[in-house]
Write a structure and sequence with these properties.
Layout (H helix, E strand, L loop, with lengths): L26 H22 L42 H28 L2
């Protein structure tokens, strides 16, 4: 360790003239004011930049299926040919009535299929 005698100028305080750069505030006030100045400069710098170019609005068509209630009238039930048969009718009459009713049912089922298909 060196003593003060070995270092010239040791222990002496050199005062410089006031240059106007240093403001004699307490250290807390100086830090806060410096921080406020920096924040202000950052805010001003952010305001001076050019705004981002926004994309042009355009219309986009999107096809979305929407449920619609089915409003198709159900086909009328026909008068079946075999409904008027009696026990006493001959076998030939019964067979002809059953064959006619079969054709009626096939036609009625086709109408039902068309009605249900129009709702889908």
């Amino acid at each position: 360790m060196t003593s003060h005698a070995e270092c010239p100028g040791a222990g002496t305080v050199v005062k410089r003239p006031y240059s106007g750069r240093h403001i004699p505030y307490s250290s807390g006030v100086a830090r806060i004011s410096t921080l406020l100045v920096l924040v202000g400069l950052l805010v001003l710098a952010g305001c001076s930049s050019r705004p981002a170019i926004e994309p042009e609005p355009r219309v986009v068509r999107v096809d979305v299926p929407v449920q619609v209630p089915c409003r198709v009238k159900a086909p009328a039930v026909p008068a079946w040919a075999a409904d008027g048969l009696r026990k006493e009718d001959s076998l030939e009459v019964k067979v002809r009535a059953l064959l006619a009713e079969r054709r009626q049912r096939i036609g009625y089922e086709r109408l039902l299929v068309v009605a249900v298909g129009s709702c889908q």
